[in-house]
Amino acid sequence: MVGGGASQFVIGNRAACAGVTLAPNASCAISVTYSPTTNAAASADLVLTMRQGPNTNPTFERALALRGQIAGAGGGGSSDTGGGALGLGWLLALAAGVAGLSGRRRRL
Predict the structure, then answer these.
(1) Strand partners, 32
(2) Where are the transmembrane segments (predicted)?
(3) Which residue, of 6, 19, 42, 97, has the fewest CB within 10 Å?
(4) pTM of the model
């Protein structure tokens, strides 16, 4: 993790993927949690370094930009609470959308 706000994000289950060689169709998973110590927005990049083939070279990197903000702080205009978690309204809308798509899939 790099960037000015890197300390505000916590990587979980890092050992599951660090140095792991994946077989075809295999996967490993990590989690990133926004754990702010201030009310200011934070941003950082999660940099993934990958290797292809049995050699350690060549390597290539991909950066995933992360941004965290406390709900209601800093001009986001949101009245939701939860420190970055989805509010109940969003979760209900997501559930309704998934149920609608599921129903369409069965009819086709």
Answers:
(1) 11
(2) 85-103
(3) 19
(4) 0.57
Asked whether residue 95 is domain-assigned, the answer is yes
CB 31 within 8 A of CB 49: no
Q: How confident is the model at residue 97 (pLDDT cuts 50, 70, 90)?
A: low
Kindly state whether residue 1 falls inside one of the protein's structural domains: no
Q: Which domain holds residue 29?
A: 6-107
pLDDT tens per residue across span 39-79: 889 999 999 888 777 666 778 888 989 999 887 655 444 44
> Does residue 75 belong to any structural domain of this protein?
yes
